[in-house]
Every structure is written in C-alpha cells, then in structure tokens.
Amino acid sequence: MTSRTSISSPASAGAIIRTRRQERGFSQKALADKAGVSRKFLIDLEAGHERPELGKTLAVMAALGLSLEATDPIPRGSDHDPARRDYTQTFNELIASRDFEFAIKMLADYATGSLRAGRPLLQRSPRLRDPHWSAALAGITNYTAHRLGQTAPSWTKRIKPLDAAWMPAESYRHVREPMKQLTMSETPEELAAMNVFIRERSLAAA
Hints:
With about 210 residues, this protein is mostly helical. The protein has helices at about 10-25, 30-35, 40-45, 50-65, 85-95, 100-115, 130-145, 175-185, 190, and strands spanning about 5, 70. The longest helix has 18 residues, at about 100-115.
C-alpha cells in the first residue's frame, strides 16, 4: 500500500518538489523549462515562498477539512527547516557555485525564518569568505534583531561595512537606475549601514 502525506503548507510542497528534482537529476533551469515556468517561479516554489495563490488555496482547503496528498513523505531535516538550516554551509555552497539568484532567495529565507523563530538564526558568525555576503547577512541579522526588539548577536559588530554600495541582485542581472533608486530608498537602515541595499518588502515576508 502506498503511503500518503498531507501537504499543509507551501514549505511542505516546496520541500517535496526540491527533493524530487534533485533525485531526478534536474537542474532548476532544466525543470523550469520542462514545466514551462520561469526559474524564478521554481526558486520561489522550492523555497516555500508563500505566494498568495498557493497560500490562500491551502488555507481554504484546510478550512474545509481538505488537503493535498503526495505519495512521497515530506522531507525532514535541517535542509528543509529554516530554524535548523546551516546557513553558513548553505551560503558557502551557493556562492562557490555562483548560484547568486538562489543565494538572494536564501537571504529572504533567513530573514523570514528569523522573524518566525523570534530570534536571529545566526547567533554565531557565518565566517563567509566573501565580504559582500557577510555584510548582507550581518545587516539582515541586525534588521531582524531590531524588529524583534532584541540586541543583535555580537558577531555582527565585527563585520565592516562595504566600501561601495552593493545590491545583491546585481550579482546575476542588470538593475536599471530607477530600480536602484527605489531599492535604496526602501532598504532598512540596518542594511544601508552595511552599504548593502535590498528592499524591505523582499525580506519581511513573516
């Protein structure tokens, strides 16, 4: 008899999809092309991004006592749970593979996971070799601590601001000047202090 698993959240669906993709040997681009969707959509889906369409649909189904089911079990472990994820390893791997688009998604994942956990998830320095991503994580850690009314972990004080303004999105695509100005105007002061610019709406999904 085939076991069945209830899918009760976007994160559950994303975890199953990501694990199945990896087991089948598909890259994100290959699967996106095969499914006829954009890679950005797949990145959001695998990361458990709560798109209104999926989140609201699941909420309505839950209210009716219904759920989606899968024959695969929902993957468990730190790789699929933001509160237990090893962000140091995650970012080192993504930066080494130059998968900057997904690394940016993980910045948002880290911010959202920290807000939901009620504390910055990086209590110790991630010790990244790349100063840009170190500054980004320090800025986000300070931002989440401030939003939670807490003191930021001491390691953030050892991370120096970047010498020049940096937008993570420029790691993989061109950002037009109007969007740069908008991003800079909507960046939380904790990130701007590190000379890193990300719109707050991209971080505060919790």
